[in-house]
Please model this.
Amino acid sequence: MARFFLTLSYNGGSFNGWQVQENTPNTVQQVLEEKLSMLLKEKIEVMGCGRTDAGVNAKNFVAHFDSNCIDLISNKEHWIYKFNNVLPPTISIQNIEAVKDTAHARFDAKSRVYYYYLSQQKNPFRDVFTYYVYGDVDFELMNRAAAVLLDHTDFTSFSKAHTQTKTNNCKISKAVWQPCGPNEWRFTIKADRFLRGMVRAIVGTLLLVGRNKITIDDFKKIIEAKDRKVAGSNAPANALFLSGIHYPKDIYLG
Model:
């Protein structure tokens, strides 16, 4: 039995989130386990690097699984093709890597990067993956507010209530809005870990700053309040992408 890392992408609009849940069919994890078990002819359990909510997308999601298959690496391209051939069009396997038996897709991750896409012009070819926002938005002001995030560690104000996490502390190392096309902006946020609903809550609250509904000082007070009820509404899920995961090099084999 050996352990492998899968790198995959998925369109979250087609699924009820990543994680298998009771009485909630059609999750990414469920579909992966079913298809991999069928092809490898053994029971496959997949552990993801995190748990994205319903509607949230992933460009580079990492998951690990154990298998007795002896040629998953030596015949990698063949297996990637076979996996993709049975998976729905909304899930794509990009890579398979051999890792140490103790490697863990979630707990060994050193940092994660999320992108959030916003458009100020309606676009029928982009709006499925962007948040269309009408009116003036001050991105320079939002970047000044976003920089405040790097000075804090407790982000209870941006977390879903009643989660099972032991702490709401995260270390954010990057948070910035940048133009990515005509009338289009991308918010990049990097941290060691993220709370449930955290990025969408941050974006929703930053937009209050950008629309001059609250000040940067108000934004600081929202963080310090450690109360989700005082922050802004969650921005829509369809524009959020898990973009990358960083792991220490020594967990990989070969």
User: Anything to note?
Assistant: Residues 28-40 form the longest helix (13 residues). The longest strand covers residues 57-67. The mean pLDDT is 95. The beta strands are 2-10, 47-48, 57-67, 91-99, 111-119, 131-132, 172-181, 184-191, 240-246.
